[in-house]
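# nightly structure sweep
# worker-07 picked up a monomer target from the shared queue
# config: single-sequence mode, recycle default, output format = structure tokens
# input follows
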Amino acid sequence: MSETEHGKIGADAVAATEPSMPDWIDVFALVADATRMKILIAMHAAPDSSVSQLAAATALGANTVTQALATLHKAGVVSVRADGRYRRWTLTDPEVHQLLHQMRAPHSELHPEHPAH
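# output follows
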């Protein structure tokens, strides 16, 4: 294969993925924060967690968890629902879920094993 052909294959790959690149860059930037990543891993294993449960799971303060959840919620990665005096948080973004699978983030009886997306 010539240098030109080899370079064209790379250029074609970049062109094919360029439309989705901004979205993926945003996802990578969002999960590049250790606090948010810890929360996402805990939430992946134990969906429908409260702030206090996530704080205990991650050894972070409740205020830190709340601020990180606000960022994740604004980005559309997690959802929240009211449950009496608690708010329950769940990971809802399939791309982030897949990234957690790639990291081998564990499941639990609260989130049993399932095929990768």
